[in-house]
């Protein structure tokens, strides 16, 4: 329970405080390793040529509308851009981390793609089109580990 509260606190801090950084202010780059998230978070990876890609924008907008569901499902969102700053939540990712993630997940150059990685580290969904948050949450909620989490919350 304390682990959950700690994770939520860090995520809420990232969502609330980090976007307030001034446009010219530099944030340190994170050397994220996907293995470090295993058994802790589900990971939604958004690959996009740029932040202005219409599919990327549509997916982000839909996720924003489902922010509470994102938190409740331990979902970490990675934005991996070919041109521009890539992020994990609101933390900038290092170039090394971006290259490692692109290579490990087989990202296609110049294309938008969404990948859902389960807490077990396995790819559960790969789509070349935005995935409605309702469908995404439905898929997550059908996973055995998520069903167990929901059952534990009821007790």
What does the model show?
The chain is α+β, with helices and mostly antiparallel strands. It has one domain: Glutaredoxin. The protein has helices at residues 2-16, 54-65, 67-72, 95-105, 133-141, 144-154; strands at 42-48, 75-81, 87-88, 91-92, 113-117, 123-127. Strands 4-3-2-1-5-6 form a six-stranded mixed sheet, with helices on both faces. Strand 2 and strand 3 form a beta hairpin. It starts with a helix and ends with a helix. The model is unreliable at 4-27 (pLDDT under 50).
Structure, briefly:
By secondary structure, this protein is an alpha+beta fold.
CATH homologous superfamily heading:
Glutaredoxin
Order of helices and strands: HEHHEEEHEEHH
Low-confidence stretches: 4-27
Number of domains: 1
The number of distinct helices, counting runs of at least 4 residues, comes to 6
Class computed from helices, strands and strand pairing: alpha+beta
Task: Detail the topology: elements first, then pairings.
Layout lengths: L1 H15 L25 E7 L5 H12 L1 H6 L2 E7 L5 E2 L2 E2 L2 H11 L7 E5 L5 E5 L5 H9 L2 H11 L1
Parallel strand pairs: 1-2
Antiparallel strand pairs: 1-5, 2-3, 3-4, 5-6
Tags for this model:
155 residues; alpha+beta; Glutaredoxin; 6-stranded mixed beta sheet; 6 helices; globular
């Amino acid at each position: 329970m304390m682990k959950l509260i700690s994770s939520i606190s860090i995520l809420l801090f990232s969502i609330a405080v980090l976007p307030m950084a001034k446009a010219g202010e530099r944030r340190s780059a994170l050397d994220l390793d996907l293995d470090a998230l295993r058994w802790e978070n589900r990971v939604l990876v958004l690959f996009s040529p740029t932040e202005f890609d219409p599919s990327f924008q549509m997916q982000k907008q839909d996720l924003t509308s489902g922010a509470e569901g994102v938190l409740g499902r331990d979902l970490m969102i990675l934005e991996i851009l070919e041109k521009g700053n890539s992020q994990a939540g609101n933390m900038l990712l290092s170039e090394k981390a971006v290259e490692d993630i692109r290579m490990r997940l087989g990202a296609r150059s110049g294309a938008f793609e969404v990948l859902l990685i389960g807490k077990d580290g396995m790819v559960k969904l790969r789509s070349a089109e935005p995935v409605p948050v309702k469908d995404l949450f439905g898929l997550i909620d059908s996973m055995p580990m998520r069903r167990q989490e929901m059952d534990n919350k009821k007790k």
